[in-house]
Amino acid sequence: MKNNIRVERAILKISQQELADRIGVSRQTINATELEKYVPSATVIMKIAHIFGKKVEDIFALEESDWK
Description:
68 residues; two-stranded antiparallel ribbon; 2 strands
């Protein structure tokens, strides 16, 4: 699953740790998600979108391989 968390964090000027603290996950979770090595739960995805003031679809996008 693709995402643009890093871009959105840069816009808000917040670190991975600050985002993690705001949504109650580890910094490693944010890092792995940004690197597209981990897909977080729906709850975490929705919290991330809320922090950025965006719709989930504006932050996350399915790839072709996600459909298989």
